[in-house]
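To: structure desk
From: M.T.
Subject: fold request, one chain
Message: Could you run this one when you get a chance? Sequence is below, nothing fancy, just the single chain.
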Amino acid sequence: MISKLDFNWLDDFIANLPEELKDRRNIFEIAGFPHWEQVNSNFLAFYFDNKEDHKFESLFFDSLIELIHLKLGRLAPQFLDELTPDFTVFREFEFIDILIVSNNKGNNKYSYEWAILIENKIHANLYNDLKTYWNCVNVKSKKIGIVLTLKPLSDDENSYLQKLKSEGILYVHITHNELLSQVSLNIYQYFKNSDDRHLLFLKEYISNINYLYSEDKSNPNMETKLKEYQINFKKIKAISELEMELRRYISKMVFGTFKKFGFEPTNTKDSSKSKHLYPVKSFFDNGKLKHPEEFRIYIDIDDLLCYNNFFSAYELHSDFVEYGGKLKSKLTNLSLPQHVQFGERGKDTGTFYHIFILDIDLSNHFTDKDSLSEKLEEILEATLFNDKNNLVQLTTDKLKRIIKN
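Reply: Done. Structure tokens follow.
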């Protein structure tokens, strides 16, 4: 704990913090499936299919063939040069994520003239039986496999592909970034005829792939913030301790003041950000209320702590929420005290229903000489528990009549 409250260092601390760099959220993040391989494969299969309505034609297919040539050089299979964009795209063909096969059939023994098998990976390791996948596709020799991943392959995964190659099974490793970079280089050829809506979708798809890559990259701004935090940790911790100390004090003042009016929380935990207070037994002994569970009072402790603002709600809850609309309709002509408004949150079928709310900036109505408990007591006496117009008593009586009828 610092020996005295000295906050001069805070200005320098905040000044040294770099601005937060926020990437625009793409539609995949918003929908909640940025990492889903199946969703990613669905999009890829759609883009590889030149008969789909994106009108990118063979953009993805041509980009993939170019990448294979770049990866393999003179070792690239000769049949790749002979491929035409006359093909069919399958999803989940015998567990193969994406299969691209020629439309022209081979001889009687083999079903397809050529085939490209794509195993798509986002975060998962390469555990698949690629040999079985290879043998599932009836092509004699014009066949090649692609392992599409976010990250470079591990040594074990590279060894696995080399072992397959020694058996005449050729799988080429390509990253998502490499594929989309090649697509971006070639898209100008298809831009004019492409569908504007699908250009937007493709941009979102690329944005999501970039987002997946950025997750593993260090953020220079966050590194700077971390360093500044560590340098000032003792002072920051002292502020956190001060915050807890003040939260406990405010809770104590709130609990003590409301108890004078017959309300208290079910537990006196003093570290909560908000609290519900309920009528105490003496409140019913005076004949003011029949059912203790009919209503409660909500207090926003954080609002008091951080903004010197008193926010409170008188609300129905539990089984009595269903009477909220009827009760409020009985009060529409009621002249409310200053600072009291009809609540708008909650519904008859929900778990709570606000009848009244109080929302008061204490700095505008009290001087610093007044203690918090004095402020709260004055507010409650002038609003919910006014002797001449006791809103709690009035609404309770009306609620009992509504329930009775």
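Reply (cont.): The first strand starts at residue 87 and ends at 93. Let me know if you need anything else for the meeting.
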